[in-house]
Amino acid sequence: MTNRVIVTIIVLSLLSCKGRQPDQKKSYNEVVETSDSSLIFDGKSLDGWEITNFGPQGPVYVSDGEIILGMGDGCTGITWKRDFPTSNYEVTLDAMRVNGNDFFCGITFPVGKDPCTLIIGGWGGTTVGLSSIDGMDASENSTTTLMKFEKEHWYHICLSVTETQIKAMIDSIKVVDFTIGNNKLSIRPEVELSKPFGIASWNTTAAIRNIRVKRIEI
Questions:
Q1: Residue 99 to residue 101: CA distance in whole angstroms
Q2: Which domains does the chain have, with CATH numbers?
Q3: By the 8 A CB rule, do 118 and 144 touch?
Q4: Which of these, 106, 81, 108, lies nearest to 95 by C-alpha position?
Q5: Alpha carbon of 187 to those of 88, 142, 207, 209: distances in Å?
Q6: pLDDT tens digits, residue range 32-75?
Q7: Which of 55, 93, 132, 178 is most exposed, with the fewest beta carbons within 10 Å of its own?
Q8: Alpha helix segments (H runs only) across the chain
Q9: Starting at the edge strand that comes first in sequence, how are the strands of the sheet with 49-51 ordered?
Q10: What is the pLDDT of residue 98?
Q11: Whole-angstrom Cα distance, residue 199 to residue 44?
């Protein structure tokens, strides 16, 4: 084998190695582009949504594929203004507490004719649960769970609703598994304007993204 051939082989090998990149695993905190028809937030505008007129709310705007719910004196949120299912559906979204120490994601949703709210990080920042069940808030009923939430960290939330059950998960943790039975579901008056489907924060700046709704086949 000539020296010229040997040099050529070495050069080609170096170029091949230089062009080969290590596998890149997407961090969960990155936005994944998708054309999923279940998306109800396009990442660019509030099309289909209305800024909820709570009164003393903070600013609401879209930035870098996220809906920012600015800190207000009470609730700040958005309400979906188009058709929404009343049962047998699943909602998924990512939520992050940017600043503040109360709930950074309160999802008000229909269960048949009744409304209910899934609270994430309420009552001082750690309470998760449904408000309300038989008049008892998320801080005092059978769905009450305490979790620590880091600021500037995305959490994936999944809420599923059927005629008989409400279930919710945060990342891989099941936080609600509630059989409705004869219990009466309701909401606190503070989120009345979020009906039938809305997302709000309380005295907290929050970011929301990747909002999806899809039907559940029963």
A1: 7
A2: 36-215 (2.60.120.560)
A3: no
A4: 106
A5: 20, 16, 23, 24
A6: 445 688 999 999 999 999 999 999 999 999 999 999 999 999 99
A7: 55
A8: 3-19
A9: 49-51, 75-80, 198-202, 105-111, 114-122, 127-131, 145-146
A10: 98
A11: 17
